[in-house]
Amino acid sequence: MTSTHNQHLNDTSASQTPTQGQGSCWPDHGGQGAALLDRLGLSSVTPTMDVSASLNPLGPPVWLSDWLARAMSDVRHYPDPEHRDAVAALAASLGIAPPSVVLTNGGAEAIHLVARAYRRTRALIIEPTFGEYARACRLNDIEIECLQLSGDDFRLDVEALSARLAAVDLVFVCRPNNPTGTRLPRSDVEALVAAARRSDTLVVIDEAFVDFADDEAPLTDLVEQGEPLVLLRSLTKFYALAGLRLGYLVASPQRCRALQHHQVAWSVNGLAAAVVPELLADSDFARRTRDWLYSERAYLTAGLRDLGLTVVDSLANFVLFRPPGQASQANGEALLAYLARHGCLARHTHTFSGLDGAWIRVALQRRADNDRLLRWLGDGLESLPEQGDAPSRGEHR
Ligand SMILES: Cc1ncc(COP(=O)(O)O)c(C=O)c1O
Question: Which portions of the chain have biased composition (kind: Polar residues) (predicted)?
Fold first, then answer.
């Protein structure tokens, strides 16, 4: 490719990115360490810990590399376009019929399939939330309306939401929500779906982090009852397979067929599809993950509150917090930069509506790394020039 072509491509992608900072752009997602360091003017720092992408630190399962090595002999073949074995395993794990499941290239592809099927319509997005809903809508000429969560506990006014359904064709609900970790109660989901039925609106519930959430009756029964509902799932986070890419969606068989119509042939690679039954059969990995999660989520949340930070109660494998007081935005940015200078990459919140850099999201790690993170944050807080009206340590416990 000529340098002119390169220049053209670079220019195009830069102009499409909505998150321009003073120098380079704030990266749109976690796990983009080089871009984050570049934006902070810290390109020379060598990262030692990445808490910006919410991946299970116990994964991928230890058997995966041997399994992949053996499976390499199959890479010369096209995968089954229907991914029957993977779909059957997922359907059995959920207790639903296989025609209600579509395997996707990560949860991200599932989001884009819905948006493609709803091209040139109107969507409601509840902010702050995962940025890919808005991006998928923009790419498909879908008009976007927004509803903002309120307060430091990010409450959703379900009545206000239901009242706005008549004006849109679909609504995206992230549950538990990225980046807050909060979850709309099932009773509110039922009320929302009932209102959506009346206004002929599709409810899209992104459950990418559902495997980390405390047990609750799954929403698959609502799909089976024929409600206007699509559930989006990811195996990427729980099994730490961000590079392999695996997700799926659950909907009525008719809706699944309509969504599959927009899917690129073989969008899920053969290795990823073939490993699905093996992953689901590893109950020991799932049990160890839940044991780790319940212990470390409580530990890190308490540790952050001990430091005087304002922390959102999370049902996911990440926690959102901010320095309290009027200087929280400046202090949030200073803390993010302090962590980065020490090689710790946290998730900035400049790309989340209403959070504006004051808040920081961190993914739970194993105990030793959670302790390291708490120490850095403690030291970082002490080094802040302006602590606003931050309470003293321990006051929030
Ligand atoms: C809420 C949510 N949905 C979907 C995704 C995409 O997941 P995947 O990596 O499986 O495409 C993410 C990734 O961060 C996410 O946060």
Answer: 1-23
